[in-house]
Amino acid sequence: MIDLLLILVTLVFAVQAFRAARLLSAALWLAGVSVLLAIFFFRLGAPQVAVIELSVGAGLVTVLFVFAISVAGDEPVALRSLLPWPLAAALALGAAALLGWLTLPLVGVEGALAERPLAELLWQQRGLDMLGQVVIIFCGVLGMLGLLAEAKAPLRQPVAAEVAARRERELEEMQQKALP
Amino acid sequence: MTLLNIGLIGVLGLLGVGFYGLLTSRNLIKVIIALQILAKAAVLALLVAGNASGQIGLGQSVAITVIVADTIVAVIGMALAIQVRRQMHTLDVVELARLRG
Fold this sequence. Notes:
The complex is a heterodimer of chains A (180) and B (101). Chain A is an all-alpha fold and 180 residues long.
C-alpha cells in the first residue's frame, strides 16, 4: 500500500517537473522524484543503489542543474510545443501501454542463482563495466572542459614583450601619480 | 498487488511521462530533464528485474553503470546548453533548428 502511494507521488512529481513554469522549480521537482525513487529502491532491497541515487541523482545533478540554469538564464518556459498535446499524450500512453501489455503481470522467480556479495560482483564479474565507467567519466570531464572553455584573445606580441610593455605602462602610471 | 508489479507500474508511468516531456518540451534544459526521467525509469526497471529474478546484486551493479552514464549525459548536455545560450542567445529547440548556414 505504502509502495503504491510512493510510486503515485513519484509520478505526480515527474508530471510537475514538466508543468512547472520556471526551470528552477522543474529541477527541484526532479530532485524530489530522485528522493522518492531512492526510498523505493531501498524497499526493493537495493540499498547501495538507493544511496548512489540519493547522492548523485538528488544531490549532484540538482546542483549542476541549478548552476546551468543560473548561467543560462531562467527564462519562463511558456513555449507552445510543435506537436499538439493530445497526439504526444497518445504516443506516450501507447508506448507505456504496449510495454505494460508485454510485461504485466510480473511474477518473481525465487532464488534462481546463489546471490554473491555486491562488491565481488562489481569488481570481478563486471570489472569491465567499471573500467568503462572510468573512461566515460574521463570523457565527460574532457568534454565539459572543452565545451565550457573560453577562447582567449591572441597576444599581439610575444609573451616577454607583452609583460615588459605592461610593466612600462604601470611604471608610467605610478610616476604620473607621484608627480601631479 | 505485489511489490514487483508496483515497481513495474512505476517504470511504465515514468516512461510515459518522460516520453511526453521529450515530445512536447522546447527548452533545451527541459529536454535534459526528460532524459533524466527516462534514465530513472531504466534504473528502476533494472532493479525490478533483479528483484524478480532473485539476483538483486547483478541488477544493482548494472544500475550503477546506468546512473554514472546518465549523469555524464546530463553534465555534457548542460555544458552544451550553456554554450548554445552564450552563442545563439536562445534555448528554444525550434529556434535553434532554424539557424542554418
